[in-house]
Amino acid sequence: MRIGIDKIGFYAPHFFVDMEKLAEARGVDPAKYTIGIGQEKMAVAPITQDAVTLAANAALRIIDEEDLAKIDLVIFGTESGIDNSKSGAVYVHDLLGIQEHARCIELKQACYGATAGIQLAKGHVALNPESRVLVLGSDISRYGIGTAGEVTQGAGAVAMIISAEPRILALENESSYLTADVMDFWRPIYSETAFVDGKYSNEQYIAFFLNTWEEFKAKYGATLSDFEAICFHLPYTKMGLKALREVLDEGSESDRERLLAHYQTSTIYNKIVGNIYTGSLYLSLLSLLELSHDLKAGDKIGLFSYGSGAVGEFFAGTLQDGFKEALAAAEHGKLFAGRKEVTVKEYEEIFSHVLPVDGSNIELDVESDPATICIEGMEDNKRIYLNKTR
User: Fold this and answer.
1) Would 277 disulfide with which of 61, 139, 144, 222, CB 3.0-4.6 Å?
2) Which is catalytic among the residues 40, 79, 150, 172?
3) Do the annotations mark residue 275 as ligand-binding?
4) Can you tell me the distance from the alpha carbon of 12 to that of 23, in angstroms, rounded to the nearest whole number?
C-alpha cells in the first residue's frame, strides 16, 4: 500500500515587504539580502493572523466534504504555538468543521515539526487505510526589527492530506535521521522573538545534511543519480544551496545540472515568502512541483528536513501519475498576485502591533484582512477566531 501526500495547499498573509527596500532602510547593500541570502520579498502577518489562522486558511484551499468526514487525525507542527496547553490543531479542527471523532495534537521540534507529523501520519494510515490525516506546518518567524535575523523572517503555512494511494507523492519507507543537543537556535518560553547563532546554525545544518545523506547512502545504496531533485528546508534560499554544493561532486555533470536546475525552481516560492519554519521544506516542494515543467510520474524526490536544536532527516518520495492535476497552482498564483506591498515603516508598525498579554480585551478589524479565517479579538485571555463563511 502506498502512503503519502494526496493534497497540498499553502497560505501566506496578504502583506509583504520588498527586501531591497528593507536593505536600504537598514543601510545594507541590497545584494546582501537578494543574492547573499537569496530573498526577494518577506511575508508580513497582520495582528489578525497567527499560526492557527494561517494553518486553517492553508487547509481551506485543499479540503472538501469527503476530507472533513474522513480526517480522523490532525497534526499541527509549529514553533509559533499560541498556548502552552491547548494544541493549535483543536482550533483548526473546529474552524474547518472536521468530524468530531478525530485526534488533534501539536508537535514541536523547531522546523522539523511538520516532518515528524508526516511520519506519524504514515503510521496511522498504515493501520487505518481508510483514514486521512491533516498535517499542518504553520509559523510566523520573528527575530525583531533591525536584528541580524530580520532578513530571514516570514509567515505562512502549508497543509497536507496524508492518505493511502496518494495522488501527488508516495513517501518511501527509506529514511535516515539524526539528533544532537546543540544550541544553534532557540526561543525561551518568555520570549516573543527567537535567538540564533547564525554561523553555528549554518554549520550544523550542513553537518546534519551530510550525516543523514551518508547514512542514507550506506543503508540503501543510494546515489545522486537516483533523484530527479532534492528539496531542502529553507530558512533562506541560499542555505539549501550551500548544503547541496557539498555533495554535487559525487554525481555526473548531468546530475549536477539537473539537481541545480530543480533546486532553483524549488526556491521560487520561498524567495517571495521568507522563512516559515515548519512549512519551509514543503513550500519548497510545492514550488518545485507547481513550477517545474519537466517532472514526470516515477521521478524520485529527495527531502532534507532540519529543525534546530537539532533534528535532521533525509527521506524520499515518488511522484504519482497525474500529480499535476492534484495541485492547486492557479489558486496559489492568485494568492501571490493579490498580495499588497507595504513600506518599511508600515511593516515596522505591523510588526509592533501585537495582541495584549495582560488580560485586556480587544476587538480587531477583520474586514481589512481578506483571509477567510482571522482572529476577531481577545476576551478573558482567549483568542476569538472567526470563519467568515459561517
Assistant:
1) 139
2) 79
3) yes
4) 22
Q: Which CATH superfamily is domain 172-322 in?
A: Thiolase/Chalcone synthase (3.40.47.10)
Note if 233 is an active site residue: yes
Active-site residue identified among 93, 104, 111, 228? 111
Q: Which CATH superfamily is domain 3-169+327-387 in?
A: Thiolase/Chalcone synthase (3.40.47.10)
- Does the pTM of the predicted model rise above 0.85? yes
Confidence of residue 193 (pLDDT cuts 50, 70, 90): confident
pLDDT band at 69 (very low <50, low <70, confident <90, very high): very high
CATH 3.40.47.10 residue spans of the chain: 3-169+327-387, 172-322
For 271-381, list the strands marked E by DSSP.
300-307, 311-319, 340-341, 362-363, 373-379
List 14, 40, 231, 233, catalytic entry? 233
Instruction: Say whether 282 counts as a known binding-site residue.
Output: no
**174 among known catalytic residues:** no
Residues 205, 134: Cα–Cα separation, whole Å: 28
> What one-letter code names the amino acid at 108?
K
Decide if pLDDT at 138 tops 90. Answer: yes
On whether the CB atoms of residues 36 and 356 are closer than 8 A, the answer is: no
To the query of whether residue 374 is one of the catalytic residues in this protein, the response is no
- Over range 241-247, report the average pLDDT: 98
Which of 215, 219, 218 is closest to 207 using CA atoms? Answer: 215
Of the candidates 55, 59, 45, which has an alpha carbon nearest to the alpha carbon of residue 76? 55
Give kind and range of the element (H or E) at residue 160.
strand 154-164
Q: How far apart are CA 192 and CA 194, in angstroms?
A: 7
Percent helix, strand and coil across the chain, each to the nearest 5: 40, 25, 35
Contact 186, 313 (CB under 8 A): no
